[in-house]
Amino acid sequence: MPQDRQDDPFEWIDAAQEQRGRAGLRRVLKPRPADSPLLDLASNDYLGLSRHPEVTAAAAEAARRWGAGSTGSRLVTGSTELHGALEAELSRVLRLRRGAGVLLRVCRPIWPRSRR
Question: pTM here?
Answer without folding.
Answer: 0.54
